[in-house]
Design brief:
Blueprint: E1 6-11, H1 17-31, E2 35-40, H2 47-51, H3 54-62, H4 71-76, E3 79-85, H5 93-100, H6 103-107, E4 115-122, H7 129-143, E5 146-147, H8 157-160, E6 166-169, H9 179-201
Parallel strand pairs: 1-2, 1-3, 3-4, 4-5, 4-6
Helix pairs in contact: 1-9
The chain binds flavin mononucleotide (FMN).
Flavin mononucleotide binds at residues 13-19, 85-89, 121-124, 127-128, 170.
Length: 202
């Protein structure tokens, strides 16, 4: 019998794109039989900044009941899939702040030997997608994680074209998450669970 795999999907999203990908990743992982926790990270922005952007404000209200990630969500997981919108080609401060809270767990070696993978979204075409994914991956290497990238391992990956992870181009906020991105998210989740299951089974 194959081992049950615990997957934590941890993300930050201001206007909902990355959250939508996170839900797709979580659903796809669940369909493979994994136990899944879907977690946002804590907001750092001032309420006035959120209120100044209707999409940000609406998303914050709509996801108020999503649990915030804790270190325990990572300790519990065999696989961690993290997502952040790009910020000048880099990880958002909110997700970075969560990463920065993991020092004690890292020091004790508790983040090692898990499978990690990353996803992102950008406003413009390319827009820093790969640099954001690689920046997240940098932390995973420091954890002693086993980074599982989707590569071009399935035909769907030639449609979205990003071997580093799922990445959605919002066209300035006008293009919601579409089938191409959903397929990429599903491929990534299935691949992560497959490797996590094999590693857990020894
Ligand atoms: C401070 C800041 C910097 C950003 N930098 C970039 C960028 O370098 N390239 C880009 O395409 N989009 C950039 N964006 C747009 C966001 O990445 C985009 O709104 C996000 O991917 C949407 O995801 P979300 O709906 O989950 O928040 C930036 C947004 C902000 C607020």
């Amino acid at each position: 019998m194959s081992a049950t795999v615990n997957v934590s999907v941890v993300y930050y999203s201001a206007t909902g794109t990355v959250a939508e990908i996170a839900r797709e990743v979580a659903e796809a992982a669940e369909k493979t039989g994994a136990e899944v926790r879907l977690r946002k990270v804590s907001e750092l922005a001032q309420p006035s900044a959120i209120a100044s952007n209707p999409a940000w404000s609406a998303h914050a209200s709509a996801t108020a009941d999503v649990h915030c990630a804790t270190v325990e969500d990572l300790l519990w997981a065999d696989a961690v899939i993290m997502g952040s919108p790009t910020r000048f080609g880099n990880v958002s401060a909110q997700l970075k702040s969560f990463l920065d809270s993991l020092g004690d767990a890292w020091r004790e070696g508790l983040l090692a030997d898990k499978v990690y993978s990353a996803f992102t979204a950008t406003s413009s075409l390319h827009g820093g997608q790969e640099s954001t994914l690689l920046a997240l991956t940098t932390s995973f290497h420091h954890f002693g994680g086993i980074v599982v990238a989707p590569g071009y391992t399935r035909p769907e990956k030639f449609a979205d074209g990003n071997p580093y992870g799922t990445a959605h181009h919002t066209r300035g906020g006008t293009q919601p998450v579409d089938d191409t991105t959903r397929n990429a998210a599903r491929v990534q989740a299935e691949r992560v669970v497959r490797f996590a299951r094999a590693i857990k089974a020894g």
